[in-house]
Specification:
heterodimer, A: alpha+beta, 60s Ribosomal Protein L30, Chain: A, five-stranded mixed beta sheet, about 35% strand, globular, B: alpha+beta, Chemotaxis protein chec, 6 helices, 8 strands
């Protein structure tokens, strides 16, 4: 098996079966796995913030950072690579509140807001969500296997969870 | 006045290093009183990195650390994160209160966690207190927040706070060591451009 392809923070990567994509140590960030089972084309996006409207200078740069720009762009790239637009499905992981900070601060609420924004964006694009491992207060590493579309969520000291 | 981190010149970077040095020096003194042993600090590094670079500068994103985070807000704002490798934090707790067999494999007993949290609080307060003294700036300091988890996930918390408009993060980082034990730890100051400008102005830069 090939080495997993690493997806950085505020980044996405796309590949096809039988490759594996990985993103390490998601905290409040959300990992969005998109998969087209027919072609085995899939992409993993490491989203940091809910919306690019937070920016003061429009949504031109850093589009991979925000839920409302990254997912749309990744879908477009997958379709350009040959994926069936209507066949794309999603699994999501992350969105924790790492320090258990009060919810009324940006830091305390950012994980929950990221999850909401990702769900909203997937609904807007008509992409069904097949699995979620989100929230709580711990970090997650995501392995996304493009052979079968499975998503393995690893944490420090907990049983791995396969979506 | 700078508008982006790239505009910082060598003299200004030196000033930021000095801020880090004074903060960490005070924190190291507090730590050495607690451990009853000399604690040395590394030369402060002022770094401007993209997100991956921040994590890469600190170490393996999946390694287990204890993180203590405080934020400050007032005339300047920012966050200070104290990170220590979990095994080393556990060792310090054992030294201070004795070893117990019933500690959870990943977690720490409540008492030890609150002790580590208190150590982090003392260090981060010492760090910020000296910056306040140096700059004569006023700011409120939050209660400390603690977590034990993957280093990368802990680091992301302060990064998110300063990531809205910029793809780069400015941070001032030092590590600690003692003569006799492993103390894989970092104290990292995160702040924004507006606050950096205020600090520089106050110090005559």
């Amino acid at each position: 098996m090939n080495e997993p392809i690493k997806v950085g923070i505020s980044d996405y990567k796309m590949s096809r079966s039988p490759d594996t994509l990985v993103t390490y140590a998601l905290g409040s960030c959300v990992g969005v796995s998109l998969y087209d089972p027919t072609t085995g084309i899939g992409g993993l996006s490491h989203i940091m913030l809910p919306t690019c409207s937070l920016r003061t200078d429009g949504c031109v740069d850093d589009r991979m950072k925000y839920a409302d720009t990254a997912i749309e762009d990744l879908v477009r790239d997958m379709v350009a690579a040959g994926a069936d637009r209507m066949g794309i499905r999603a699994k999501i992981a992350g969105g924790a509140n790492m320090f258990g900070v009060a919810f009324d601060s940006l830091m305390g609420s950012i994980g929950a807001r990221n999850i909401e924004a990702v769900r909203r964006e997937l609904a807007r694009l008509g992409i069904p969500v097949d699995g979620e491992d989100v929230g709580a207060d711990y970090g997650r590493t995501v392995f996304f296997s493009l052979g079968d579309g499975s998503v393995r969520v690893q944490t420090a000291g907990r049983q791995a969870n396969v979506l | 006045m700078i508008r982006s981190y790239e505009e910082l010149d060598e003299r200004q970077l030196d000033m930021l290093r000095e801020i880090g040095n004074i903060g960490a020096g005070n924190a190291a003194t507090s730590l050495s009183v607690l451990l009853d042993e000399g604690v040395h600090i590394s030369i402060p590094r002022v770094r401007i990195e993209d997100y991956g670079g921040v994590v890469g500068a600190i170490g393996d994103p999946e390694s287990l650390s204890v993180g203590i985070l405080i934020h400050f807000e007032g005339e300047v704002k920012g966050m200070v994160l104290f990170l220590i490798a979990f095994e080393d934090a556990k060792e310090i707790a054992h030294i201070l209160v004795g070893r117990r067999e019933d500690d959870e494999p990943v977690g720490l007993s409540e008492m030890k966690l609150s002790m580590i949290k208190e150590i982090g609080n003392i260090l981060t307060s010492a760090y910020l207190g000296s910056i306040g003294m140096l700059t004569d700036l006023r700011f409120e300091i939050s209660v400390p927040y603690a977590a034990i988890d993957m280093t990368g996930a802990l680091l992301a918390a302060p990064m998110v706070e300063f990531s809205v408009d910029d793809a780069h993060i400015l941070f001032i980082e030092e590590s600690f060591r003692t003569e006799t034990r492993s103390l894989r730890s970092h104290v990292i100051l995160f702040s924004d451009i507006a606050s950096i400008n205020v600090m520089m102005e106050r110090l005559g830069f």
